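Supplementary Methods. Inverse-folding protocol.

Structures were first reduced to a discrete structure-token string of length 492. This string, shown here, constituted the complete conditioning input.
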């Protein structure tokens, strides 16, 4: 019967990280078949092989010239003058694996290899962990396939090479036998050889779970594409700049109503992945990338959002997930929606912090008051508290909430101008209406024109009071006649 041997190890390098669980499932199924065969033949049940991840790495390849580099391609890297890394690199996550499995052996014999005839010679698949010296199996590479047991002259799909280990006195140590697949059970005294055959192919099972290897590049073409978190968030910030923030929930709700609205996270992934096939799709992609091209402002915003998310002290399930995803070395596309929300979440957090500071600093005796008259053009010096970035069917919309030095609250909805919490704006705008929100009166503005921007800590804000209402007289409104009066005139 089969003797238990020490566990032997086989290495597999540069394996697709997202296929590891598939490989473990394939090994489990193969081991289950082996167990059933062993029990049916009265053999001892072999131990299940263990698949261990020993290393993780990232590899980037240029889609244009096929240059490959370890890790993420640096933003300034150029493989040719004609294209940059921002346009042409794909990054995948790969792992190094070890298969720990029991090496099969029969009393008196060791299984060394499986010989498979191919055009031009024989393929020899060595048993993982078998003690074979270099050149020991060379004789079977070119010789005709035969069976030392039945000696029948016929074509065989595969045969097995065995070597006597000297534990049986009747068999001299170092004796070799080549036995055909159909004869192996007879050679082993009627015992099933399925467990031996299965144990020869543990590494084949693992490789098969990820598909065949690409020549020269491992499984690059089949591995999951990942992205550098900072690069992804940069394109998220660019998408928000152009189209406003759209969550996946908002995109799904729009789809349910028959509208078409792409989530910001999906748009950023689209901008990072050049479409295959060329033609009109490639041209549209290039135009969209040019429209959303990053500036230093978006790069800085992305860096700030990533740093904030990584150092976040979570107070909710959402923040726990966001912090965990942000701390990963690479972004799995299935987590893109969570990480993309960091840009908008940071804006909200900054706004809440500004609100907290204001409430602590402001005296209840100095409440907000309405400023100006409806339709009046006035000059203002405001400190931005919060910015709500959203999307409409007409494009991006920024809702800027700000205060003047007298603590008066202003709301400005604009699609053309963005702002950051803590930024100081000097502008001219028209009073749209006077409203109240959550117990505070506020002045809503429209048709604003920014005259000056001043960035810096909120503590440096020393605004001058808002311009007096007489800055520009309000437009005269046409008096509305009562409907009854209008009807009487028409009747006349």
């Amino acid at each position: 019967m089969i003797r238990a041997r020490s566990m032997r190890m086989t290495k597999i390098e540069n394996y697709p990280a997202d296929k590891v669980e598939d490989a473990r499932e394939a090994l489990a199924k193969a081991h289950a078949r082996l167990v059933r065969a062993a029990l049916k033949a009265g053999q001892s049940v072999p131990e299940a092989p263990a698949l261990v991840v020993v290393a993780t790495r990232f590899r980037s390849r240029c889609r244009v010239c096929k240059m490959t580099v370890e890790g993420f391609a640096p933003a300034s890297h150029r493989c040719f003058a004609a294209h940059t890394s921002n346009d042409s690199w794909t990054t995948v996550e790969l792992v190094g694996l070890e298969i720990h499995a029991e090496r099969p052996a029969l009393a008196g014999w060791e299984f060394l290899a499986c010989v498979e005839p191919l055009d031009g010679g024989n393929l020899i698949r060595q048993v993982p962990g078998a003690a074979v010296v270099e050149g020991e199996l060379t004789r079977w590479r070119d010789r005709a396939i035969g069976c030392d047991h039945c000696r029948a002259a016929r074509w065989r799909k595969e045969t097995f090479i065995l070597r006597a280990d000297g534990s049986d006195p009747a068999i001299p140590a170092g004796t070799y036998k080549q036995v055909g697949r159909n004869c192996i059970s007879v050679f082993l005294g009627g015992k099933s050889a399925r467990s031996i055959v299965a144990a020869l192919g543990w590494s084949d099972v693992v490789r098969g779970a990820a598909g065949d290897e690409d020549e020269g590049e491992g499984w690059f073409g089949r591995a999951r594409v990942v992205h550098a978190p900072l690069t992804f968030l940069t394109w998220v910030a660019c998408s928000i700049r152009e189209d406003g923030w759209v969550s996946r929930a908002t995109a799904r709700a729009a789809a349910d109503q028959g509208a078409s609205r792409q989530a910001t996270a999906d748009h950023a992934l689209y901008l990072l992945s050049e479409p295959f096939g060329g033609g009109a799709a490639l041209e549209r992609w290039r135009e969209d990338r040019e429209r959303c091209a990053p500036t230093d402002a978006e790069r800085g915003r992305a860096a700030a959002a990533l740093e904030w998310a990584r150092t976040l002290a979570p107070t909710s399930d959402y923040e726990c997930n966001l912090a965990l995803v942000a701390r990963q070395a690479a972004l799995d596309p299935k987590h893109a929606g969570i990480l993309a929300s960091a840009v908008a979440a940071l804006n909200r957090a900054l706004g809440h912090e500004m609100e907290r500071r204001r409430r602590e600093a402001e005296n209840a005796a100095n409440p907000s008051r309405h400023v100006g008259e409806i339709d009046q053009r006035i000059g203002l010096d405001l400190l931005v508290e919060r910015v709500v970035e959203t999307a409409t069917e007409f494009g991006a919309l920024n809702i800027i909430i700000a205060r003047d030095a007298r603590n008066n609250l202003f709301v400005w909805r604009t699609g053309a101008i963005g702002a950051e919490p803590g930024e100081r704006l000097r502008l001219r705008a028209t009073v749209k209406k006077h409203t109240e929100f959550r117990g505070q009166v506020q002045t809503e503005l429209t048709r604003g024109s920014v005259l000056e921007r001043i960035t810096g800590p909120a503590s440096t804000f020393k605004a001058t009071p808002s311009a007096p209402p007489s800055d520009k007289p309000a437009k005269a409104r046409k008096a509305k006649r009562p409907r009854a009066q209008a009807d009487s005139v028409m009747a006349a």
